[in-house]
Design a protein that fits this description.
This is CBS domain-containing protein. It comes from Candidatus Aeolococcus gillhamiae. Keywords: CBS domain. There is one protein chain. 27% of the residues lie in helices and 25% in strands. It is an alpha/beta fold.
């Protein structure tokens, strides 16, 4: 049984609770130089490519720039972009990112970019949450409830959000 001292049920934490809404983007037709400058100067690993109405067209990642020839973002971007929605659970979004081995997950509403969730965002969230074993009070970090406590074998947990 998982009880909850903070009023936050981990199953109800959504992508909207953790995503970045003010997303850095490049536009279709922008040069690779512009994309690289944005990636390097902002210390990020990739950037969504959007049209004038903010529809997601692709993503330019470090690997795209390093591995594909081209002069514009349209020539090198990854076009088959996997997205999620604001109301998706954080756990389901993390599962997509881990199983697909992607570093950033654009958040879309009606095909338009409204946010982005990165592995760094997940780590920031995990940093401020933990599971406490109800048997021995051992703390464990992670998005999901542990099966058993590594210290005592306990199977009952309390999820806590640590004040920032």
């Amino acid at each position: 049984m998982t009880e909850n001292r903070t009023g936050t049920d981990p199953a109800t934490i959504t992508v909207a609770d953790v995503m970045v809404s003010n997303v850095l983007v490049v536009h279709s037709g922008d040069s690779i130089d512009d994309a690289v400058a944005l990636i390097v100067d902002s210390r990020i690993t990739g950037v969504p490519v959007v049209d004038d109405e903010h529809h997601i067209l692709g993503i330019v990642a470090e690997s795209d720039v390093l591995g594909k020839p081209g002069q514009t973002v349209d020539e090198v971007m990854t076009r088959d972009v996997i997205t999620t929605t604001e109301n998706a659970t954080l756990d389901s979004a993390a599962e997509i990112m881990l199983t697909r081995r992607i570093r950033r997950l654009p958040v879309a509403r009606d095909g338009r970019l409204v946010g982005i969730l990165t592995r760094a965002d997940l780590l920031r969230h995990v940093r401020h949450t933990h599971w406490t074993c109800d048997w021995c009070a051992n703390n464990v970090i992670g998005l999901r409830r542990p099966n058993a406590c590594p210290q005592c074998g306990g199977e009952s947990w309390t999820f806590e959000v640590v004040p920032r």
